[in-house]
Amino acid sequence: MVMSFRVSDLQMLLGFVGRSKSGLKHELVTRALQLVQFDCSPEVFKKIKEIYETRYAKHSDPGQPQQQHRPPDTLSIHSSYDRGSTVARTSLSTPNIDYPALYGKYLNGLGRLPLKPVKPEVRLVKLPFYNILDELLKPTELVLQNNDKLQESPCVFALTPRQVELIRNSRDLQPGVKSVQVVLRICYTDTSCPQEDQYPPNIAVKVNHSYCSVPGYYPSNKPGVEPKRPCRPINLTHLMYLSSATNRITVTWGNYGKSYSVGLFLVRQMTSAELLQRLKTIGIKHPELCKALVKEKLRLDPESEIATTGVRVSLICPLVKMRLSVPCRAETCAHLQCFDAVFYLQMNEKKPTWMCPVCDKPATYDQLMIDGLLSKILTECEDADEIEYLVDGSWCPIRAEKERSCSPQCPILVLGSSDVNGLLPAPNTNGENGKATADVVDLTLDSSSSEEEEEEEEEDDEEDDGPKSKRRCSYDKSLASAC
């Protein structure tokens, strides 16, 4: 019914619900369709039916009973509009009615249908930090307009009053950035599995009259490795009209043989603290279940020749080398070692990889679980950094042994009659020529004493044979070396 309305009928309908009545016909139709899709109350439906019947009653024959006129295939149009599939032109009673791609529901031009059908089966992976509130545009394939290397694909759409209110009333993540956002996501046109965000080459996004910033490339420190680009949802909110006015988005992309699809979503961006709180609410695994997992891990395998009596688990996070506060691991991981959920979520908030730091396998947010048994152990065992799980599911702490001194216990040589720092007493007995004699012979001193005797003999020979050589600086041997 709405698609067959004239401009005056559309203005009457939009004025009835308090929406803007200004603009071209395709803009009025866009607002009316948004109204039918999102905010169609019984009063609005009654008004649409009343306008439709009034309009067709003027063209009906007064001698015949008035019948309710219904354009053919109206139901199929509305259902196709909701599914986002290709809509064929329908011959209505009013001639020359054009459907410019359902007035902005499709990309690649306003006045013609897309060359290829929309593929709603293209799915995007779920992003933990983006909670989808509304789907403004289903994943739609970017269709080539010509053979040029640079292609442009425009679309127009309008936000509903409810969506505008959600954006305006949302909190600020940081100055100028709202938590409720309109984001653009781009991926490969592949229907085999959910697709990750992937930007086409030479991408540029223009919102209304301004270009939107797109994340740049990460610099690569390794030689021969190309820099990577973080493909994230592109926030368009700060450049949009937060009113009933229509917004025009133009995607410029490079045509190099690959097919891409784009989608528009109204999302609420989450923080790592919010995801941690949600994980603590729904993601804790009971200690008894964790204990049963330990028993299963250490259960004797009859085919194995080596019996495992225990397994060690560190209480230090492998990410930041600090003691665990919220021990966490993925349910798909085969190891018992945990990492800290706080730092894991913070790292993925800045650079999402979602890879387990222990086994380097995928560990998405939906697969994370908090180890209830290890959480209990952390509160009971505060003086150890490592524990050992036993076969019966019990555990015992492994405390580090006291550090032993690395310096060997060497005998001390008394070099002179005077004390060294007042710690070593000089011997009291005197031998011949007033030389001190030692009561105990230390065998370790043989080599050094023999060397001293040889040096003395060489000095005597030099005195007899030739002129005296320069003497070395004498020093008190009783002094301890600084090094």
Automatic annotation (TrEMBL):
SMART domains per record: SAP
EC number: 2.3.2.27
Top enzyme class: transferase
Subcellular location: Nucleus
Record field: compositional bias (Acidic residues): 449-465
CDD domains, sorted: SP-RING_PIAS4
Pfam family, any one: PINIT
Alphabetical UniProt keywords: DNA-binding, Isopeptide bond, Metal-binding, Nucleus, Transcription, Transcription regulation, Transferase, Ubl conjugation, Ubl conjugation pathway, Zinc, Zinc-finger
Pathway: Protein modification; protein sumoylation
Gene Ontology biological process terms, A to Z: central nervous system development; DNA damage response; limb epidermis development; mRNA destabilization; negative regulation of canonical NF-kappaB signal transduction; negative regulation of double-strand break repair via homologous recombination; negative regulation of protein localization to chromatin; negative regulation of transcription by RNA polymerase II
Positions of the SAP domain: 2-36
Residues covered by region (Disordered): 57-80, 424-483
PROSITE patterns, A to Z: PINIT (PS51466), SAP (PS50800), ZF_SP_RING (PS51044)
Catalysis: reaction(s): S-ubiquitinyl-[E2 ubiquitin-conjugating enzyme]-L-cysteine + [acceptor protein]-L-lysine = [E2 ubiquitin-conjugating enzyme]-L-cysteine + N(6)-ubiquitinyl-[acceptor protein]-L-lysine
Residue ranges crossing the lipid bilayer per the database entry: none
Domain PINIT: start-end pairs: 110-270
Keyword Manganese: no
UniProt domain SP-RING-type: residue ranges: 302-383
Any one GO molecular function term: SUMO ligase activity
UniProt cross-references to PANTHER family, sorted A to Z: E3 SUMO-PROTEIN LIGASE PIAS4, ZINC FINGER MIZ DOMAIN-CONTAINING PROTEIN
Family: Belongs to the PIAS family.
Annotated protein name in UniProt: RING-type E3 ubiquitin transferase
Annotated organism of origin: Sphenodon punctatus
Lineage, highest ranks first: Eukaryota, Metazoa, Chordata, Craniata, Vertebrata
